[in-house]
From TrEMBL, chain A:
MF GO annotations: rRNA binding; structural constituent of ribosome
Similarity field: Belongs to the bacterial ribosomal protein bL20 family.
Ribonucleoprotein in keyword set: yes
Any one cellular-component term (Gene Ontology): ribosome
SUPFAM superfamilies: Ribosomal protein L20
Keywords: Ribonucleoprotein, Ribosomal protein
Organism: Capitella teleta
Protein name as annotated: Large ribosomal subunit protein bL20m
Gene Ontology BP annotations: translation
UniProtKB/TrEMBL annotation, chain B:
Gene Ontology MF terms: structural constituent of ribosome
Naturally occurring in which organism (per UniProt): Capitella teleta
Protein name in UniProt: Large ribosomal subunit protein mL43
InterPro entries in alphabetical order: Ribosomal_mL43, Ribosomal_mL43/mS25/NADH_DH, Thioredoxin-like_sf
UniProt keyword annotation of RNA-binding present: no
Compartments (UniProt record): Mitochondrion
SMART domains hit by this protein: L51_S25_CI-B8
Pfam families reported in the protein's UniProt record: L51_S25_CI-B8
Length: 162, 187
C-alpha cells in the first residue's frame, strides 16, 4: 500500500472500486485463494471471511506484542528459576547494574547461550546482595563476581596501599 | 494484509555469494521499446546515453534490445536461478531506468516476499543450546532414580511451628534476640 504520488494512488484505487464489479471480485479472490470452502470462489461467501481476516490482522498487530511479552516473561521466569532466582528480582538486579538488555535478548541468551545467562544471574545476585536484598534469593551469590561496588572497593584499597 | 495471502520466506544468501567471490546474479536484460512513440522516450534516452556505460561496468550481463513498434517499453530481467521479472518502464525518465537496472543488478534472483526473520545464522548457539540437562549437576548421570535426597521438598520460609520451636530453643539457651516471635523476617 505504497502510494508515492497522486497518479499512483488513483491507479490502485481504480483496480478495486471501479464501476466494473470484476475488479471487486478479483480483489476478494486475491485474499481468499487459500481457503478450503466455497469462499475461495464465491463472492458473497468469501467476502465475509475476507473482512473478518482483515479485521483480525489489525487486532493481532497489538495482540502479538502482548503475547510475545507474556511468552518472554514465562521463559525468563523458567530460566531464572534454574539458577534459584525469580524473574522480577533478576531483572531488578540487572537494571541496577546498568545492564540494559531487553526481554527478547535475555530469552535468546537463556536459550542459545546458557552460560552467559548464568553469568548474568550471578551479576544480578551479587548486585542484590550488595544492596541488602539477599532475601530475594535462596542461595548466596558467588564470591568471584565483579561488580561496580567491588571495583570501587578494590580501587580504594589500592589507593590506600600507596 | 493477512500473512497467508502472500508467500513468506526466511532470509537467505544463495550459495554464500560474496563470502568468497561475488557473482552477479543478473544473467540477461531484455529492453523492449518503441523507436518513435512518446512513452519510450526515456528508454531511448537511456539507450543513447547510459546503456554502454552499464554494459562496460557489467560484462557478465547480456543486454538485448527489442524494438517493437507502438508497444509500451518493458524491462525483462532474468537471473541465474532461472527466475524472470518484468517491469513496465512506460514514460520513465532515463535516470529512473538507470536506477531500476542498478536495483536489478544488485539482487539475487530470489522472490521478494515477507521475511519471517530479518536475520539468518547457521550457528545460532556458541555455548550449546539449552537442554533440560544443561543446568543440572553432572553427578545425576551416575545416580539411581528415584532418589530420596534429590526428590526432597526444598525448604520454604520457616513454618510457624518451626519458629516457635526455634524461639523456645533460643530461650532455653538464653539468647534474647531470637526469642521475639513477632519479629518480622528480613526481606
Amino acid at each position: 500500500m505504497v502510494f508515492l504520488s497522486l497518479p499512483l494512488f488513483s491507479r490502485s484505487k481504480r483496480l478495486v472500486m471501479g464501476s466494473n464489479r470484476f475488479y471487486k471480485i478479483q480483489q476478494m479472490l486475491r485474499f481468499t485463494w487459500h481457503y478450503r470452502h466455497r469462499g475461495r470462489n464465491c463472492y458473497s461467501i468469501g467476502i465475509r471471511n475476507m473482512r473478518r481476516a482483515l479485521r483480525y490482522s489489525t487486532m493481532w498487530r497489538k495482540l502479538k506484542k502482548i503475547q510475545q511479552t507474556e511468552l518472554f516473561n514465562q521463559r525468563l521466569e523458567a530460566a531464572a528459576n534454574e539458577h534459584n532466582m525469580n524473574r522480577v528480582p533478576f531483572m531488578e538486579g540487572l537494571a541496577r547494574s546498568q545492564i540494559q538488555l531487553d526481554r527478547k535478548v535475555l530469552t535468546d541468551l537463556a536459550i542459545y547461550e546458557p552460560r552467559t545467562f548464568q553469568s548474568l544471574t550471578d551479576v544480578s545476585k551479587k548486585r542484590l546482595s550488595e544492596e541488602g536484598m539477599s532475601g530475594m534469593m535462596q542461595i548466596m551469590p558467588r564470591k568471584d563476581v565483579i561488580t561496580q561496588q567491588s571495583l570501587r572497593k578494590w580501587s580504594a584499597y589500592y589507593k590506600a596501599r600507596k | 494484509m493477512p500473512s497467508r495471502v502472500t508467500p513468506s520466506s526466511y532470509l537467505r544468501n544463495v550459495l554464500q555469494n560474496g563470502v568468497g567471490r561475488y557473482v552477479c546474479q543478473l544473467q540477461r536484460v531484455t529492453l523492449s521499446f518503441c523507436k518513435s512513440t512518446n512513452p519510450s522516450r526515456g528508454a531511448r534516452d537511456f539507450i543513447e546515453n547510459h546503456l554502454l556505460e552499464f554494459t562496460r561496468n557489467n560484462p557478465g550481463v547480456v543486454i538485448y534490445l527489442d524494438p517493437k513498434r507502438h508497444h509500451s517499453p518493458k524491462l525483462c530481467v532474468e537471473y541465474l536461478n532461472g527466475r524472470t521479472e518484468t517491469m513496465s518502464i512506460d514514460r520513465y525518465p532515463a535516470e529512473d531506468i538507470c536506477q531500476w537496472l542498478d536495483h536489478f543488478r544488485t539482487r539475487s534472483g530470489v522472490q521478494i516476499n515477507r521475511l519471517r526473520k530479518n536475520w539468518h545464522t547457521d550457528t545460532p548457539s556458541i555455548q550449546g543450546t539449552w537442554t533440560p540437562a544443561t543446568n543440572r549437576p553432572t553427578s545425576w548421570n551416575v545416580t539411581e532414580f528415584p532418589c530420596q535426597e534429590i526428590s526432597r521438598r526444598l525448604p520454604d520460609k520457616e513454618t510457624a511451628t518451626e519458629r516457635i520451636l526455634s524461639a523456645a530453643k533460643a530461650l532455653r539457651e538464653g539468647s534474647p534476640t531470637n526469642a521475639a516471635i513477632g519479629k518480622e523476617t528480613e526481606l
